[in-house]
Amino acid sequence: MKHRQTVDKLTKLIIYMLGRQPDEFGLLPDENGYVKIKDLMKSLGEEPGWRHVRLNHIREVIYSTGSPALEIDENLIRASDRTRLLLPEIAEALPKLIYCAVRRRAYPVLLEKGLTAAVTGNRIMLTGDIAMAQRLGRRIDTSPVILTVHAKNARKKGATVWRFGKHLFLSDCLPVGSFSGPPLPKIRPAAKPVEMPTSQATPKTPGSYYLDLTIDATIKDQAKKRSRQRKNEWKRDRKRSSRNKINRWPDD
Length: 252
Prior knowledge:
This protein has eight helices and twelve strands. The chain is of the alpha+beta class. The strands form four sheets. It has a four-stranded antiparallel beta sheet, with no helix packed on it. Strands 1-3-2 form a three-stranded antiparallel beta sheet.
């Protein structure tokens, strides 16, 4: 019974997220009401008590009801009843500042060229709440960059801004000069390579003796011959002295 109640609660939550207030959870349905399943799971993972939800839980929600309240099309999902789903509308009044989250790697390029919907593949999502901007940013980057968008400047430079629900704004572009962000990190100059003093090559195995193959073989032979001559010289001297004693005449 408890499992059944959990499935029912999850069903009602997803229906509310997709068919009532997707903006409250940072979700933007396409023109047919679909959102990506992975975006839905990221949003559910940010809600207390629902961080364990995986794809199999969502499939159970769909197939466990007699008349499915949710529809899946490959990697997309939508609510079957979308009569209460709000549509984007041109924003007449805008807050002075709105916020947009971008990836760190894209930030240096955005400062030079701005941001367009063609780059994101959808309308650019903005919000008047910096906490919501950080929530959206963590879905695309572990440490996102938060842009501060000056709404009036964005409109003057040709950007169109829509309001979507109570929590989101949408735009087709963010021209250069319509937003500001943190300064880029300073690029340190490359360190110069340190010249190491030249040192004599040391043997790989200290204490070992290596033969010098560059020495001429004839020199080695001469050295061996001289050492043998010096080694036997005392024998020759002894024989020579004994012969002298024998051949010497006795004293008168």
